[in-house]
């Protein structure tokens, strides 16, 4: 049914691009949208996972949103993105869980790290160029601490741990308005944060000039990002819950270490994922859904579509209703693509191109670029694609042919196809196309059924006619069980892949 030969090459060669300087990004530090400016290489640091458990879909939504932004920057605006992500593989939570399971903390972390990589692959999230474990950067951590120590910004607590002295760093609080300084039991200020945690019995530790211990949480990202990017990072991203204190602390210690006023140019944060009644998905609330659980009931494309339907910095609601909407939107795209291929493979249009229709498509394509350049507005972009599909659906005849020229069908198909592909909707998924052998088998089956059905419709014997049509309906229903949906008209039949199921959210 779908010939992905010459036509597929035509689609893949289509390029979307515009001026880089037109891209506006919301910067949480300035609370405004600012032009995205960088040199030839855009340096992007992503706060990665603490690998003490399976990744849940709240985390996944964050990584999908940033993956979409990365793809937009690369595919539409031709930025060369170099992305680094950390893996926190030594941490209080990891140590606590390993102790409960009577296993080695680093071994536990390694197992969950492997699972994390499998999960992002299953969600079609592009892997960062570099994934860095904090335990591989102990020398870099110690170097930064020594530098800050020499600048009198570090003090030792009673247990031997080292803390960053926020009262001595006058630029602290540049990202968010921090609370009033409050006395603390063993810290000089409640805002001070650990750079080096003194060792405790049974915990992983490394030698240092100040005694055995392990890195604090905030210092690991500073050490890894500084190792690769030095004194300037273009984009630093994470969930909104990392804004304070994690990102505030990173910025403070890095500005002090590098002697710069600003370490990160653009801080971007994704909103929370909620599971009803504005309840954040969280392991502490025991309301999480793992990626593997999600993919038993929904596809990666469907969950990504949910993420595309709102701006990345907004909170996202995950429930049966919102997933129904996402599945419905993806189905619109799937049906349109199926109809376009059916038309182009089976119908030789004699229509001449309509200047008005072509102009409308060009306007929609231009509006897509404008919206994506405006802080990556994917929700408006999807609405523009739906508008385009609605225009063509009005031109669709009862026999699944478009009442317009093939040129216009190709242009519309190209725009939908390339946009979805540029967002990371996996068009190699069986929902959109299968391998050539399976397509051939399905085409043969559907075409045979269509011919048999036409014979029945032309038969003068009502008994034979009804018997044959009943057999055709049975075959159609059996194909539907295999997620192959057949649509009949008076003269022909077409098919498409479709699978929509639902997941139960456990809020207990």
UniProtKB/TrEMBL annotation:
Family matches, as InterPro entries: Cys-tRNA-ligase, Cys-tRNA/MSH_ligase, Rossmann-like_a/b/a_fold, tRNA-synt_1_cat_dom, tRNAsynth_Ia_anticodon-bd
Cofactor(s) needed, names only, are: Zn(2+)
Q: Which Gene3D superfamilies match?
A: Cysteine-tRNA ligase, C-terminal anti-codon recognition domain, HUPs
* EC primary class: ligase
User: Any idea which UniProt keywords this protein has?
Assistant: Aminoacyl-tRNA synthetase, ATP-binding, Ligase, Metal-binding, Nucleotide-binding, Protein biosynthesis, Zinc
GO MF annotation: an example: metal ion binding
Name the chemical reaction catalysed here: 2 L-cysteine = S-sulfanyl-L-cysteine + L-alanine; S-sulfanyl-L-cysteine + tRNA(Cys) + ATP = (S)-sulfanyl-L-cysteinyl-tRNA(Cys) + AMP + diphosphate; tRNA(Cys) + L-cysteine + ATP = L-cysteinyl-tRNA(Cys) + AMP + diphosphate; S-sulfanyl-L-cysteine + L-cysteine = S-disulfanyl-L-cysteine + L-alanine
Q: Name one Pfam family in it.
A: tRNA-synt_1e
Q: Please report the stretch or stretches of sequence annotated as the tRNA synthetases class I catalytic domain.
A: 39-327
According to its record, what are the GO cellular component terms? cytoplasm
Which superkingdom does the taxonomy of this entry point to? Eukaryota
Identify its protein family: Belongs to the class-I aminoacyl-tRNA synthetase family.
Q: What is this protein called?
A: cysteine--tRNA ligase
